[in-house]
What we know:
The chain has 422 residues and is mainly alpha-helical. It has helices at 32-37, 43-56, 61-85, 89-96, 99-132, 136-157, 159-178, 188-193, 202-215, 218-232, 239-271, 281-292, 294-327, 333-350, 354-380, 383-386, 393-419. The chain has a single domain (26-419), classed as Up-down Bundle (Amino acid/polyamine transporter I), CATH 1.20.1740. It contains 17 helices and no strands. α15 (354-380) runs antiparallel to α17.
Amino acid sequence: xxxxxxxxxxNPTTTEVTAPRPRHRLSxxxxxxxxxxxxYVDPGNVAANLTAGSRYGYLLVWVLVLANxxxxxxxxxxxxxxLVTGHSLPEILGDRLRRGPRIAYWLQAEVVAAATDLxxxxxxxxxxxxxxxxxLVVGGIVIGVVSMxxxxxxxxxxxxxxxxxxxxxxxxxxxxxxxxxxxxxVSWGEAGAGLLPRFAGADSVLIAAGMLGATVMPHAIYVHxxxxxxxxxxxxxxxxxxxxxxxxxxxxxxxxxxxVNIAMLLLAAASLQGVGGTDSIQGAHAAISTALGPAxxxxxxxxxxxxxxxxxxxxxYAGAAIMSGLLRIRVPMVVRRxxxxxxxxxxxxxxxxxxxxxxxxxxxLSVGIPFALAPLVWLTGRPTVMGRFANSLALRxxxxxxxxxxxxxxxxxVWLTMTGES
Length: 422
């Protein structure tokens, strides 16, 4: 059977004969989506959401709600590929593309992965500076070293322990970023009005694209298919049950991530709007500490640190899955971690505003989304790939509408960037 072709795909009515797996409670099958969800609460999200809230108040709440709804669909389709085919999305594309297009596709995917890693290392370094006063470059090195230790858990002990560690860090992120919301004077009426889609000039479109790039992240699309493959791939007679468990896994994890993102924007809108010096995460942290108390500021810093550590580990996992799938080259994750750390350290040492670098990295991620999303939607709708688990007509329509919306926003972003409008 060709790689990337689902069991029974040659004849969707074929009975699957893989030996049944032991039955567990559906919640025991959760995990991969929570690892992928870390990508949705990484330091890039912090920068984009705080920037949006402090500049435009509640105006862009709708962007986060829409992006999170898209993320639920996208992450389910990504996991579905890994479960049904037993292969990651990069592996399937690597088998179907000729050498030239495959290398070109890998290059853009690596640029996206590099932008992701940049955001995560910078965010972790900022957290260490906030909490302990470490220089940014030193903090970046510490983040890189600790992330190597986290990756070694997956290498030596397997995926399940790695999932538990990442889920623990996600809990810390949730507490750290949401605590301040309970001490903020949020205008819930204005927040509700923020659900109405609208912009306030070209710069708000740029920020919205960054928020979208930070929420529907390309590397999370690639990595979730690999995570599902490694955890459950080739589900056999349990495949239908695994897909049901995966739907819950995705919904619950994305609700958590979405709540954290919206909480950050509401916090910034309520406590940072019109406050000077909040154009950086450090400045926002200082303003939060002043307005809401030093304890809230410390929890915010701890949440940012956990976000950087977890997300850079997941990002490195994604980069390894992209390279091995498209180029059939396996590089030890520790080596890859060391190499991908260099660009982030160079930027940290260059004096560039790290918060603005984070926001721009998210815009780059937004441009890379269609290259991951369009093949995902196309493949999951093909019976030759997915067999009887191919997307229904209604799901295909919805998924292609999502692709169209994202591409349209990116075209607007490119136009505004080229024309210099603001």
